[in-house]
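Exercise 3.2. Students should predict the tertiary structure of the chain below and write it as C-alpha cells, then compare their answer with the key that follows.

Predict this chain's 3D structure.
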Amino acid sequence: MSKVVVTGSLRVLGLQALVMSVFLIGFLGVHGFSVDSKSALVGGLIALLPSCFYVWRSSRGKTQDPRSLVKAHYRAESGKLAITVVLFGVAFTQLGPIAAPPLFVTYVATLASYWAALLLKN
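Answer key:
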C-alpha cells in the first residue's frame, strides 16, 4: 500500500478517535460517569473498531492489480458491516443499560468525521 494511502487512512482513524473522545469528554462533563457516558463510548467504538478492521483488511494486499484491489475493498467493507452489526447487537444485549441517544449521536458524529478527514489538506 502506498504511503499516501496509509497516511490518509491514519488521518481518518485519528480524526474518528478524536471526535469520539470529544463527545465522550462532553458526556462525561455533563453527566459524569453514567449510562449516557458509557453509551457515548460504546457508540464511538462501534464506529471506530470496524473502521480499523477495514483499514487493516484492505491494506493486506500487495498487488496493484485493479481487480484485486476492488476484491480487497469488497471483502473489507463486508467485514466492516458484519462487525458493526455484531457490535450493535452486543451493545444492546450484553452491556447492561444503554442510552440510545448518546450512543447514536456519538456513532453518527464519529462516522461523519470520515468525510471531514477526506476534505482536510496535508
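Discussion points: The radius of gyration is 16 Å. The chain has a mean pLDDT of 86.
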